[in-house]
Amino acid sequence: MILVIGGAGAGKRGFARSLGYAENEMTDRMETDAPVLYGLEEIVRADPEKADALLEPLCRRELVLCCEVGSGVIPNSRGERVFREKTGRLCVLLAQRAEAVVRVVAGIPTAIKGELPCARC
After folding, report:
1. Mind listing the pLDDT tens digit for each residue in 3-14?
2. How far apart are CA 59 and CA 75, in angstroms?
């Protein structure tokens, strides 16, 4: 599994496409078996208490894409703080298990763990 992180609109899905994944191979739903899952932060936001149970199913994906949510002003809302904490901790566990972690900024991928993957090697 490769974890891809970056800001909203940073080019994470474009990076997945550059690796040879088609739109029909990408999903934002845990219930499918598509190799690429994007929008992990929104899946956690929907039910932060179930975040821990996502680890094993996510590790079976080829790519997991998640927006960075921990930067900026700390939210006043307890729910928003819990969501950010759960998302961050899940990403830490995913990064530990990932063969590579890629951060995408302005469409430019940078490997922060492992090597940048090549197109469907």
Report:
1. 999 999 999 999
2. 29
Domains contained in the chain, CATH given? 2-113 (3.40.50.300)
Write out pLDDT tens, residues 62-80: 999 999 987 777 778 888 8
- Is the full-model pTM beyond 0.70? yes
DSSP code string of the chain: -EEEEE-TTSSHHHHHHHTT--GGGEES-TTS--SEE--HHHHHHH-GGGGGGGHHHHHTSSEEEEE--SSSSPPS-HHHHHHHHHHHHHHHHHHHH-SEEEEEETTEEEEEES-PPPTT-
Report the alpha-carbon distance of residue 104 to residue 53 in Å, rounded: 26
